[in-house]
Give the backbone structure.
Amino acid sequence: MALARSHSLMLLLAAFAFLADGVGTQVMGLALPALLHDWHLPRAAMALPTALGLVGFTIGAVLGGLSADRFGVLRALIGSLLLLGLSTAGCSLAHDPAQLGMWRIAAGLGLGASLPVAAAIIADFSTERRRGMAMAVGLAFLPLGGFMAGQAAPLIIPMFGWRGLFAVGGAVSVLFAGCAGLGGGFARIDPGAARAVRGHTGSMLRLEASVRDTLGLWLAFFFTVLIFYSMFSWAPTALSARGLSIAEVSRVVSVFSLGGLVGGLATGLLLQWFGSRGCLTLLAIGAVASGLALPHMVPNTTGATLTALVLCTGTLGFTVVGIQTLLFALGAEVYSIAHRATGLGLAVGWGRVGAIVSSYTGVMALDRGGFQGFCASLVLAVLLALLAGLLVSKRIPARFGQARPASA
């Protein structure tokens, strides 16, 4: 019973980490319109600071996975959350894009490291049969954090400006780092236990996965995260350019996160009903349909209802975050426990390469094709993510409706 409570507490700490990640991910995009107005800069001036943060994320994802496999998941989790929180709060001290970029690199290191560590905790402390659902529930806290940030931004920015938004977002991660430290001690989890369980020796990178599975998983992460970050980084600016107010933009973008929350949870059930390949195909079809419809849902007149835009954006969030959730669960199957955090860290790192690319493809698509061109770039990325995901030979089988094997 005590062991079960300890495992449940570790799963809760991983969920808190995803919540903090969701806040940290969306803060930059939500602060961007007010920041550009305050500094009197064009939106292209923020491409470099945004990309620098994602470079830090990419490096952090790899280092986080390696650190967790070598020194223990709890230590890696606490350190990554502290770095994320302090650096995000530090963004409030920036006075030009160069200073902001330096803080975003540090924040990216913490954000990148915490994701594979939290995913490895869920995979390690859940049973094989319930791993997909546990991963879905844990990852649902990622869009929940984004939704909370989207709801808080219209309240914080008018009173304290974009600097206040960064300060509050950083405080959330520091708070959860403290919870992880207290919770790990309460559960009596040995910070180095993961190293002993995994049996990791030396620093040799031996993932024990096929080249086909690794490339498919990495490319699927690349294109899925490109979509995710394109929405958070550039959709607020694009919608503002179409005449929506800051409050309306925050509401629409937060619905993307809310749809992702529902989609992440639903993916756990879809995986059990249809297996990984069937689930991936269904989610991709939904993402393509909503991406094609999205530019036609923006109201043309001031004061018009946002219902159609909100529903379409929520559907896109449902499907994109659902695909991301599926890929984390699939990664836990591709990599063995001895190298799971490292393997997931590398996959997440490649995803963040897609996020870096989104810093430039997003603004290029907006400048050349407007909001419609931006949405077309999202649809193309969905199709490429689908092809890459189907390349992975490892599968999560459908479990519902299968006959149980007869006892010997």
In short: The CA atoms of residues 273 and 401 lie 8 Å apart.
